[in-house]
């Protein structure tokens, strides 16, 4: 929100206009996206989410999915629709300071704890959803309809290292996945180092 204008008993809300299209629209038009593009978008989103998680108090978005991500003509990513975001307290068991703390989220993208009556929502909730979103963008397969499987089962040409990154981001137990978006971003930036081909090239160079 840029400004609020009250005039003759009417309230006008001035908001940013984001030119571009949602990633869900892009998926519908063109299907699975290029590996390099998806990784770039993932790193940008990690930066956005890390900013939210570092607020005092932290903000958990809770609804990362392709339809809530805009791609501008210059390739920048914008996260939209904070409808179910939570501003949480200092402790993990604290009630949210702002927001609806019911079990809300989008099936397929939402982390397991979002739909658990006793689940605790934190930064790792957004990490899971981002992992599920990147899975959908890479494979064209909706995580709710078909489940999340290793990405190379659907597209064998994709990177083995990237497959490991997505698998870790979407583990059912939050303690087993990336603990911060900074950690997730680092893995996305260095995923090729995990590829078997990369290791083989290093060995060959060493032998040479």
Properties at a glance:
about 210 residues; alpha+beta; three-stranded antiparallel sheet; 8 helices
Summarize the biggest pleated sheet: 3 strands, antiparallel
Q: What string gives the helices and strands in order? A: EEEHHEEEEHHHHHH
Oligomer: single chain
Give the N-terminus to C-terminus distance in angstroms.
Answer: 60 Å
Give the spatial strand order of the biggest sheet.
3-5-6
Query: What is the average per-residue confidence, as pLDDT, rounded to a whole number?
Result: 89
- Helix percentage: 25-40%
Shape, per Cα inertia axes: globular
The beta-strand count equals 7
β-sheet strand percentage: 5-15%
The gyration radius over C-alpha positions equals 19 Å
**Which structural class do the helices and strands define?**
alpha+beta
Query: Which spans have pLDDT < 50 for at least 5 consecutive residues?
Result: none
Number of helices: 8
List the helices and strands and how they pair.
Blueprint: E1 3-7, E2 10-14, E3 21-22, H1 23-30, H2 35-53, E4 59-60, E5 69-71, E6 77-79, E7 86-87, H3 123-139, H4 143-146, H5 151-154, H6 160-169, H7 181-189, H8 196-207
Antiparallel strand pairs: 1-2, 3-5, 4-7, 5-6
Helix pairs in contact: 2-3, 2-7, 3-6
Summarize this, please?
The chain is of the alpha+beta class and 208 residues long. Helix content is 40%, strand content 11%.
Structure description:
This protein is an alpha+beta fold and 208 residues long. The chain has eight helices and seven strands, in the order E-E-E-H-H-E-E-E-E-H-H-H-H-H-H. The strands form three sheets. Strands 3-5-6 form a three-stranded antiparallel beta sheet. A two-stranded antiparallel ribbon has the order 1-2. Strands 4-7 form a two-stranded antiparallel sheet. Helix 2 packs antiparallel against helix 7 and helix 3 runs antiparallel to helix 6.
């Amino acid at each position: 929100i840029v400004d609020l204008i009250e005039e003759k008993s009417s309230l006008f809300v001035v908001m940013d206009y984001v030119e571009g299209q949602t990633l869900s629209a892009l998926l519908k038009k063109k299907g699975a996206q290029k590996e390099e593009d998806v990784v770039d978008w993932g790193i940008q989103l990690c930066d956005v989410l890390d900013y939210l998680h570092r607020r005092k108090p932290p903000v958990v978005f809770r609804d990362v999915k392709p339809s809530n991500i805009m791609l501008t003509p210059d390739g920048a990513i914008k996260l939209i629709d904070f409808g179910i975001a939570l501003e949480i307290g200092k402790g993990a068991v604290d009630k949210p300071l702002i927001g609806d703390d019911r079990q809300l989220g989008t099936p397929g993208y939402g982390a397991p704890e979002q739909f658990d009556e006793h689940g605790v929502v934190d930064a790792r909730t957004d990490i899971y959803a981002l992992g599920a979103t990147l899975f959908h963008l890479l494979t064209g397969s909706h995580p709710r309809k078909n489940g999340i499987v290793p990405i190379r089962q659907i597209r064998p040409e994709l990177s083995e290292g990237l497959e490991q990154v997505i698998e870790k981001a979407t583990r059912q137990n939050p303690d087993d996945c990336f603990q911060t978006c900074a950690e997730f971003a680092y893995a996305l930036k260095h995923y090729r180092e995990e590829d078997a081909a990369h290791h083989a090239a290093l060995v060959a160079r060493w032998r040479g």
